[in-house]
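Work package 3, deliverable 3.1, input record:
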Amino acid sequence: MTDLSLTRAGVDRDRVLRLLQEYGVYAGVVVLLLFNFAFTAHFASAENFRTQAVQVAPVLIVALGMALAIGTEGVDLSVGSVMALATSLLSLYLGYGPWLAVVVAVVGGIVVGLANGALVAFVGVQPIVATLALMVGARGLALVLLPQLKDVRDPGLASLGSGDALGIPYLVLIAATLALLVAFVVRRTAFGRQLLAVGDSRPAARLAGLPVRRVLIVVYVCSGALAAIAGVLATARLTASDPTSLGSLMELSAITAVVVGGTPLSGGRVRIGGTVAGAVLIQLLTTTLIKHDLPPSWTQIAQAVVIVGAVYAARERGKR
Amino acid sequence: MKHLAPQRRARARTLLTAGLVTSLALMAGCAKSEDDSGGDKDASRSAESGQVVASPSGGSGPTCGIDAYGGKKLDLKSATVGFSQSEKEANPFRIAETASLKAEAGKRGVKLLTANAQSQFSKQISDVQDLIAKGADLLVIAPLNSDGWEPVLRSAAAKHIPIVTVDRKINATACKDYVSFIGSDFVEQGRRAADRMIEATGGKGEIAILLGAAGNNVTTERTKGFEDRVKEKAPGLKIVFRQTGDFAREKGQSVTENLIQSKPGIKGIYAENDEMGLGAVNALKGAGKKPGDVKIVTIDGTRNAVQGIVDGWIDGVIESNPRFGPLAFQTLNSFTQGQKVAQDIVIQDSAYTKDNAKADLGKAY
């Protein structure tokens, strides 16, 4: 009798833990929202949600690419620098009109992604080292191209940063579209399956005849392109190109969003919904602390607590 | 088949490399940026305002002479001066500072060696040691940190090399380890910003501070001066919000967006540098506010911020003058000729308001 109840308690605990791992990030978002509705003045306004959504958009877009890289048991540390490179290129080519400048900026991101992918897939460098090299290199290149902050006066870009369609800011629309697109690719396409297989076990994927190299290169190219798009959007919002500070520590925010969202660092699994929620969670956390005017150091500590919690959940998952 | 696979791989690799190289070349090749108002900028830049000493030189403060410091007289014209810059020349302040020293060296015909520590303190230490090894007779240092200078000071003292530090101080004994410090009084800048804010808001209402990067003496001193002066002169002015914007425009913008939503009644924003102030302007524009709805006071005096005053968004800019060249060389010149120089040379920073912004736009850096 006692034995029976004990095992049942054990099963329940397992289930609770698993639920927490699966849905903890959503619960976190809900808790923070409820807290803010109750205790933060002027929180429940359309204007506020608009601001939060606009602020989270660039991080979210970068995190989508990061989720793909982490899904292949890799990581892309160069995303912040790619944003800086994109903003430099954007500013340099704006003379040809905004469209071409945006294309050049995204191509810059793709080129960095190609270099990352080639290092990982062909040379066999560890992703963390390969992308670290590009992180340093791309930031350096960005600063060579544009040594200091430069204002962007192009009206097209300015409206991209602050305009909206049907009341929804362009930034949010773009981020949502990209999130849906990436989720579709991961879930419903052959490439998505291959990506997860490569992340699960690269040797097994190779033995099964999957194009491992191609998959890896495409993943890093996607991550680079997404980071470049985020850089373009952040530039449009700021109406200035600032390669020194744009995207600094962005790689950490993106990794945090992905990990908090329940994507394991060991690869083989990508949770796009969780990644979106993870990015929103971090944004809400920062906002809550700012709105209550708590010392900035608290924000960092609070983020650390969330990360440790997420990593704890990941550890349990690994044991299972 | 066996043969083909490696061949194909090699070809793929060559293609990749070729692609990377050509795209890089393309990137740098045919860039065309937005309208470059460069010509008119350079023209007005020549009207640069040198620094003026605020503290009475020679008179009351402690001074330093060549006998007390050790070393021998020399002629500045035939000497080599080493300049160690602390941060990347990516922000207007650092650019103007280095340019000013180079221009003054050129004007006086002095040989100037420069080094940039790229915001890494260990690099700055080795930079200065390199400068000494390369034969610098005199040193001008813009220190990144205040502490940790012992090894450099020891090697400089062994060769009796006079050192002048600019914009930040080092924790060492004046006239023994270094000759003089030339710089702004950051606490005073904070006080003057507070005066501007009190005037702009009428001394009543709620205001916010956008702090600089944490753990930086510029941040703490500009905050202290501002808060003390507000407490003392305008008790009706309440500081209800203090958040860091890390001296960056983007962070200043996102923090201000949150600020104006959670505290819609905010009357003024004190930004501890121009960049964060410009971010705040962006946020206010985005929220549909009009120029002057929220009073903004910033510190530094960059061209963009002064333009912000002309446009009506910014109420006042307290200048932090980066043009150390003339004063640094003048100090070194008097010192090496055997005259006494002041140990602390505090420069006079001017200010920009509605009244002079348009006329003095050329003076902004």
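The CA atoms of residues 8 and 14 of chain A lie 10 Å apart.
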